[in-house]
Amino acid sequence: MARLRGAPFLILGGKGVQTKEQLIASARKVATSGQDLARLIRIIAKNCIDPRCSQELLCVVEQTQTMSNQLRIISSVKASLARSKSSEELLLGNAQQLLRAVSKTVRAAEAASLRGLRPLSSDAEELEVAAFCMQWRQKLLQHRLQETCDRDCDELGLRKASTRAPPTLAGLAPEHYES
């Protein structure tokens, strides 16, 4: 998941990408990261106790995987062509679509993690994914508990809105999945 952190360079108009080769390498890296994410999300879907969440995860992960394959193919084709603005825009557009799909996938994974996961097999990768989801869930529950306990009330007795955002799966990813 952390490899997706490099993707904004690709999306921000190539600020950090100087050559065609760098652009294509970045696109391939984003596509590979999408494939890696799909593998991890399938583990969550397989072990989710809620069948609706599991089905939704499988749908969004299929979109992510399709877009990853599309980006990988486009970057391979563009590697053999001369550099042009339209080919760069096509790569950037597909990378942006992939990152939107990844965001949707992570939100669906958060919902599935909140519903709960089945006891896992002894597969090391499944155990690591489950531990990661449980850690995020604990942080979210602690955040919610703090929200209910520490908030001041306004003159109507309503709790004031928090300025702190709740923790996300994507926010924890750099700690666990460094490239």
TrEMBL record:
The keyword Cytoplasm applies. It comes from the Eukaryota. GO terms for biological process: cell migration; cell-cell adhesion. SUPFAM superfamilies: alpha-catenin/vinculin-like. GO terms for cellular component: adherens junction; catenin complex; cytoplasm. It is found in: Cytoplasm. It holds the Pfam family Vinculin. Keywords: Cytoplasm. Coiled coil: none annotated. One of its GO terms (molecular function) is beta-catenin binding. Belongs to the vinculin/alpha-catenin family. This is Vinculin.
